[in-house]
Specification:
Layout (H helix, E strand, L loop, with lengths): L3 E8 L5 E11 L7 H4 L1 E4 L2 E3 L2 E8 L3 E2 L5 E2 L1 E12 L2 E4 L3 E6 L4 H16 L1
Antiparallel strand pairs: 1-5, 2-3, 2-8, 4-5, 6-7, 8-9, 8-10
């Protein structure tokens, strides 16, 4: 199955960080996440000295606020940090994900193809 890959990094800010998880949820743009029903959690392994990385495999599309498939959606995430036996949580981060051409870009592409084919 095809997916859109997004890489997330975390830099350990102290020597006593034991583990880091990334919690994430996907929504239509502008919608808040329902953490109790759609949250996914992934462990972030160390890939270097104090550097953790996880590649998230996201869907190529998901329903927009009208229930229609869309390649433009939001990724919400935060980090759970186990430090010195205690749990801490990062702030919530949100970003837009675009997995293919948006309508505007697609219409520009059609204009360019028409222009090239018309030459």
């Amino acid at each position: 199955m095809n997916s859109h890959r997004v890489v997330k990094w975390f830099r350990d800010y102290a020597d006593d960080i034991e583990a880091v998880n990334i919690h994430y949820a996907l929504t239509a743009v502008g919608e808040p996440p329902d953490w109790n029903h759609v949250r996914a959690t992934r462990y972030m392994p160390l890939v270097g000295k104090l550097i953790r990385m996880k590649e998230l495999r996201l869907p190529l599309s998901m329903p927009d606020s009208n229930g229609q498939p869309s390649n433009h959606y939001a990724l919400h995430y935060y980090f759970e940090i186990c430090q010195g036996g205690d749990l801490q949580f990062s702030p919530l981060y949100s970003e837009e994900v675009v997995t293919g051409p948006t309508d505007e870009r697609a219409s520009k592409l059609v204009d360019v193809v028409d222009e090239v084919e018309g030459s």
